[in-house]
């Protein structure tokens, strides 16, 4: 059975069912009949699972996401890991096409299309110890250095296997999560799981940069696939040689759970918030002038004789020009997990940064932020992980096959 959405039929059936509910239902049904296009576009969109790179890296971040890690169970070896990745890859490919995998009777997403579903797989440093593949562990997978702002919970970081799921429909994303968890069987044990969200496609009058929970436009200066050096900065070279040649076409994901001190932040006046970031809150334009995409002028002097972009402003400290060109592709989800004992929201950013080498991307930038970023006073880094994400696979193959069978 296909779970692709036939909106004409579904809309008609849904309308009939809603009319029974009375006047309120009729009003909703009319809205569904008159304005199906946004849902049609969202539901039918697909992202191919197979390819040179894994999906979920250079693709736009979806409205719903799950990040989770597993540890191999005692006794599970390289062969067991290969069998698991084979199952997972086959299932992810079917779901990405909007098909129902054989034997799936959950019914969770029967009424929805693929909704830009992506599933991405990676390996943590400990995976290579548990599978006897330490001689093929990449040097770039060395543990991240400690940062002074870290308050990390080891139970919510690292892991042997890492999975990223994204979709523009919450049930489609959960369906993928549920199936992968079921198919894991006894081969692995869950280590941690985090869920997040972004703005839904079609919620703004035109495509716009996402906002984070601080209300700030977030991602303006992200590298773009059209940039001439994008592949070089984000992906491991296709002609990679040596013990980690299996990473050709892959990337490295740094995952950080960053809690935002939202109550403290919200008490700042708007002008102070903008100085901390270095951009206007209304449209994301740099305080040095122009619009959102205008290059930041770090030398601009304001009318008061001071730097337009403060010395500790986030955009200044994080700028590639201030970090010897260090570049990473940020692809994050916001999260809210209720409230803490003190009443403050347990909310923030599930930060995922992609790069060809974390020692040339994330690490130098984070070191700079750690020392002099004004925004750091309003953030708490609570979990961290680094994962080697191999290149994509062709039809009939599975992710990680070059490592596990090479």
UniProtKB/TrEMBL annotation:
Kindly list the cofactors needed: heme b
Ranges for the Dyp-type peroxidase C-terminal domain?
A: 209-393
Which segments of the protein form a coiled coil according to its record? none
Q: Which UniProt keywords apply?
A: Heme, Iron, Lyase, Metal-binding, Oxidoreductase, Peroxidase, Signal
Q: What name does UniProt use for this protein?
A: Deferrochelatase
Task: Check the record and name the Pfam families matching this protein.
Answer: Dyp_perox_C (PF20628), Dyp_perox_N (PF04261)
| KW DNA-binding (keyword) present | no
Give the region (Disordered) as residue ranges. Answer: 193-230
Major localisation: other
Q: Which reaction does it catalyse?
A: heme b + 2 H(+) = protoporphyrin IX + Fe(2+)
What's an example of a GO molecular-function annotation for this chain? peroxidase activity
Could you tell me which residue ranges the Dyp-type peroxidase N-terminal domain spans? 54-198
Q: Report the family membership.
A: Belongs to the DyP-type peroxidase family.
């Amino acid at each position: 059975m296909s779970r692709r959405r036939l909106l004409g039929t579904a809309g008609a059936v849904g309308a009939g069912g809603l009319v029974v509910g009375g006047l309120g239902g009729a009003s909703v049904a009319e809205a569904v009949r008159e304005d199906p296009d946004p849902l049609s576009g969202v539901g039918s969109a697909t992202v191919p699972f197979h390819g040179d790179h894994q999906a979920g890296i250079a693709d736009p971040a979806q409205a719903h996401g799950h990040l989770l890690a597993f540890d191999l169970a005692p006794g599970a070896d390289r062969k067991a890991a290969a069998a698991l990745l084979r199952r997972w890859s086959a299932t992810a490919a079917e779901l990405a096409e909007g098909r129902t995998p054989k034997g799936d009777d959950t019914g969770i997403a029967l009424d929805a299309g693929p909704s830009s579903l992506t599933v991405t797989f990676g390996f943590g440093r400990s995976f290579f110890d548990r599978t006897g593949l330490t001689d093929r562990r990449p040097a770039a997978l060395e543990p991240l250095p400690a940062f002074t702002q870290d308050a990390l919970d080891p139970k919510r970081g690292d892991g042997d296997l890492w999975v990223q799921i994204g979709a523009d429909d919450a049930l489609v994303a959960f369906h993928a999560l549920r199936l992968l968890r079921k198919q894991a069987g006894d081969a692995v044990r869950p280590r941690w799981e985090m869920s997040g969200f972004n703005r839904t496609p079609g919620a703004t009058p035109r495509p716009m940069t996402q906002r984070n929970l601080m209300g700030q436009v977030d991602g303006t200066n992200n590298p773009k696939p059209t940039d001439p050096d994008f592949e070089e900065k984000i992906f491991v070279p296709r002609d990679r040689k040596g013990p980690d040649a299996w990473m050709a076409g892959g990337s490295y994901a740094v995952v950080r759970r960053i809690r935002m001190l939202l109550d403290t932040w919200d008490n700042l006046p708007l002008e102070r918030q903008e100085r901390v970031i270095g951009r206007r809150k209304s449209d994301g334009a740099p305080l040095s002038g122009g619009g959102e995409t205008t290059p930041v002028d770090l030398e601009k002097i304001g009318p008061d004789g001071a730097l337009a972009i403060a010395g500790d402003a986030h955009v200044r400290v994080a700028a590639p020009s201030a970090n010897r060109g260090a570049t990473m592709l940020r692809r994050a989800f916001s999260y809210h997990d209720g409230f803490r004992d003190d009443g403050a929201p347990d909310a923030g950013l599930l930060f995922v940064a992609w790069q060809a080498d974390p020692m040339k991307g994330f690490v130098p930038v984070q070191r700079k932020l750690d020392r002099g970023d004004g925004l750091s006073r309003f953030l708490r880094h609570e979990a961290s992980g680094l994962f080697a994400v191999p290149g994509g696979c062709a039809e009939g193959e599975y992710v990680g096959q070059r490592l596990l069978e090479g």
